[in-house]
Amino acid sequence: MRKNIIIGSRGSRLALTQAESVLSQLKESNPHLQFSLSKIVTEGDRNRRLSLDRMAGVGVFVKELEAALLNGRIDLAVHSLKDLPTEIPEGLYLAAVVERLDPRDILVSRSGRLAELAPGSKIGTGSIRRAVQLTAYRADLEVRSIRGNIDTRLRKVSSCELDGVILAATAMLRLGWADRITE
């Protein structure tokens, strides 16, 4: 058995935070093994101009991780379950799911809570589900599809490109940014 276990992860701040959390848990329960992180750039990371629905196929954030697993470059990959395709390639397994900190969605806004936003306020989300729910709740808001890591999405609010963004609560909590959550 190999003594050094290589954990693959995308290179975003959130992805690395998640991978480091898993690495820490593995070290604690396997003190006789060594662990290291390997950053892997995916098609979804490289091509930020195309919207995700226009990119070829599924798994644009995992294909390179899967290839690295299959060719032995990494021993395991840490990735958000929401980005995994429903069919896992032959030879790979979903080995574990870590506990989610908080299942809710949150709003980060410059203008207050969701109910207080002015009609026509521009709210960004990278999720079709969130866009549908938001439109059902507040049809008077302008819901915009956005891409990018969490830093990019928050920057769109601070630069006034958007009035707010809907994100996963867990992402903000993992990064220690609970104080930036509006609701």
Automatic annotation (TrEMBL):
Pathway: Porphyrin-containing compound metabolism; protoporphyrin-IX biosynthesis; coproporphyrinogen-III from 5-aminolevulinate: step 2/4. It catalyses: 4 porphobilinogen + H2O = hydroxymethylbilane + 4 NH4(+). Residues 5-182 form the Porphobilinogen deaminase N-terminal domain. One of its GO terms (cellular component) is cytoplasm. Keywords: Porphyrin biosynthesis, Transferase. One of its GO terms (molecular function) is hydroxymethylbilane synthase activity. The keyword Zinc does not apply. GO terms for biological process: heme biosynthetic process. Its cofactor is dipyrromethane. InterPro entries: HemC, Porphobilin_deaminase_N. Its EC number is 2.5.1.61. Signal peptide: none annotated. PANTHER family: PORPHOBILINOGEN DEAMINASE. Tetrapolymerization of the monopyrrole PBG into the hydroxymethylbilane pre-uroporphyrinogen in several discrete steps. Belongs to the HMBS family. This is hydroxymethylbilane synthase. It comes from marine sediment metagenome.
